[in-house]
């Protein structure tokens, strides 16, 4: 031994991160990447960002775009125009840059403001009570129940489904199609992997055009009816943009919250000393949710691209360079967090990167937090014996990471 350590090539680390095994536990691989520094420049062709401050700055940096206007997408993923998933995704607000982003965000954003979300509390409490009761019934015989299917998915889609006016009977069948669409966000080698997402997107487009027609004829108390009315009053969006963003809202507000719910429940079961706090102390519960956002985030990485030559923390970045912000690594940056590998719900000034920042800051942040904060006390009050069973696994996905199965028993 000569005392020197050889670092593995960043691209080798990425290859391992993209393997099924790497995705089951990516955190040691982020530490390997971090050993190269907060900014990892791969020959000027790609930059990986592992630092908290660097990710936070990148998300607010005007020279960095969210990457996917059509021209950038042509460079990043040639052939994407043949795929319905990406054709529709590029029409929603998340994959738009200004001025279209600003226009769409203004149109849809009001409905999810912190103030409007407070008014949804009663509805969210009702749905979380129903979800907990369903789980209790599903496991009443003492058998093993899959928490993801029987609780996290049902609850997440129940909330956004009611807000968008999707009838409850249509919701259970949507899980596979939502999952297929989120796969489009992972690094893609073979465009063939997009085909299930393409088919799912086409089914959803047809579904939402029909839903919009129905709600136009017979409006309800849901947000979609409100947006249809606003379009009639001269609101500046097209029917195609309405459908594209309804699909975004359904997918974004189901998959990531489903993962957050599963992760948070798993972390809670693993830390029984926190159950009293979760049952009785809303402030402790809010800290617990923040810490689970930080510790095991449902979104692990975000893509950006340089819109012009610029300097980033002293590193020259040329126009067109893609940057991968490893926000799950930033959430464990030891320069920002004491003992980052320790789950500590009492952390002060937590600020995980998981909900993004800057102009694309998660539109559903307040709703996502409220949904989990409503659920945790009800779950541990009703099911104090909730326990993990064998057989948990994570999906074969890295950008949007979460359990595909989380077996539990409830008594
Ligand atoms: C645990 C739950 C959630 C997580 C971790 C999450 C995460 C994120 C992240 C990381 C982004 C920004 C992506 C980027 O900057 O590249 C984002 C944007 C977005 N999220 Fe969420 N999200 C969650 C829940 C929700 C919910 C409940 C909704 C429902 C309204 C929602 C709707 C959106 C929308 C519409 C955008 C695009 C905003 C824009 O481009 O301006 N999300 N979310």
Query: Which residues form runs of ≥5 with pLDDT under 50?
Result: none
- Summed over residues and divided by their number, the pLDDT gives a mean of 94
Identify the strand order in the major beta sheet: 1-2-8-5-3
Alpha-carbon distance between the termini?
A: 53 Å
CATH class: Mainly Alpha
Structural class: alpha+beta
**Percent of residues in helices:** 40-55%
Return Rg in Å.
21 Å
Number of strands: 12
Assembly state (oligomeric): single chain
Q: And the CATH topology?
A: Cytochrome p450
How many structural domains can be distinguished in the coordinates? 1
Broad shape: globular
Can you tell me the CATH architecture? Orthogonal Bundle
Bound molecules: protoporphyrin IX containing FE
Number of helices: 18
CATH superfamily: Cytochrome P450
Major sheet attributes: 5 strands, mixed
Account of the 3D structure:
The protein has helices at residues 10-17, 20-24, 27-34, 52-60, 70-76, 84-89, 100-109, 114-118, 121-138, 147-164, 175-182, 195-217, 223-232, 239-270, 275-280, 282-295, 327-330, 365-382; strands spanning 39-42, 46-49, 64-65, 145-146, 302-306, 310-312, 315-317, 322-325, 387-388, 393-394, 403-405, 407-409. The chain is of the alpha+beta class and 411 residues long. The protein has one domain (10-409): Cytochrome p450. The strands form 4 sheets. It has a 5-stranded mixed beta sheet with strand order 1-2-8-5-3. Strands 4-12-9 form a 3-stranded antiparallel beta sheet. The chain has a two-stranded antiparallel sheet with strand order 6-7. Helix 1 (10-17) runs antiparallel to helix 3 (27-34), helix 11 (175-182) packs across helix 14 (239-270) and helix 14 (239-270) crosses helix 16 (282-295). Bound molecules: protoporphyrin IX containing FE. Protoporphyrin IX containing FE binds at residues 66, 93-94, 105, 112, 248-249, 252-253, 256-257, 260, 298-299, 302, 354-356, 360, 362-364, 367-368.
């Amino acid at each position: 031994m000569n005392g020197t350590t050889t670092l593995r090539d960043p691209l080798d680390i990425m290859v391992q991160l993209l393997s099924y095994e790497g995705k089951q536990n990516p955190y040691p691989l982020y530490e390997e990447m971090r050993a190269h520094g907060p900014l990892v420049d791969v020959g000027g062709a790609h930059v990986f960002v592992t630092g908290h401050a660097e990710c936070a700055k990148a998300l607010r940096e005007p020279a960095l775009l969210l990457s996917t206007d059509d021209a950038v997408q042509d460079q990043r993923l040639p052939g994407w125009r043949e795929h319905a998933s990406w054709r529709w995704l590029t029409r929603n607000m998340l994959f738009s840059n200004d001025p279209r982003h600003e226009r769409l965000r203004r149109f849809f954003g009001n409905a999810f403001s912190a103030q409007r979300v407070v008014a949804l509390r009663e509805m969210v409490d009702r749905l979380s009570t129903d979800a907990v009761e369903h789980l209790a019934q599903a496991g009443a015989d003492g058998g093993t129940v899959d928490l993801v299917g029987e609780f996290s998915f049902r609850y997440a889609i129940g909330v956004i489904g009611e807000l968008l006016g999707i009838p409850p009977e249509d919701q259970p069948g949507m899980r596979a199609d939502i999952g297929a669409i989120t796969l489009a966000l992972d690094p893609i080698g073979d465009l063939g992997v997009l085909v299930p997402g393409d088919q799912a997107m086409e089914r959803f487009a047809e579904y939402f055009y029909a839903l919009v027609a129905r709600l136009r004829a017979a409006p309800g108390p849901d947000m979609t009816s409100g947006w249809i009315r606003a379009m009639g009053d001269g609101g500046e969006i097209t029917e195609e943009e309405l459908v594209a963003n309804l699909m975004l809202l359904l997918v974004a507000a189901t998959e990531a919250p489903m993962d957050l719910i599963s992760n948070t429940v798993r972390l809670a079961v693993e830390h029984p000393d926190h159950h009293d706090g979760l049952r009785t102390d809303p402030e402790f519960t809010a800290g617990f949710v923040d810490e689970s956002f930080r510790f095991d985030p449902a979104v692990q990485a975000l893509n950006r691209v340089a819109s012009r030559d610029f300097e980033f923390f002293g590193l020259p970045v040329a126009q067109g360079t893609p940057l991968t912000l490893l926000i799950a690594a930033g959430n464990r940056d030891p320069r920002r967090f004491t003992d980052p590998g320790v789950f500590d719900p009492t952390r002060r000034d937590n600020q995980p990167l998981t909900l993004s920042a800057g102009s694309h800051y998660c539109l559903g942040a307040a709703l996502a937090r409220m949904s989990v904060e409503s659920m945790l006390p009800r779950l541990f009050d009703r099911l104090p014996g909730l326990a993990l069973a064998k057989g948990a696994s994570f999906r074969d996905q890295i950008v949007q990471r979460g359990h595909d199965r989380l077996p539990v028993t409830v008594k």
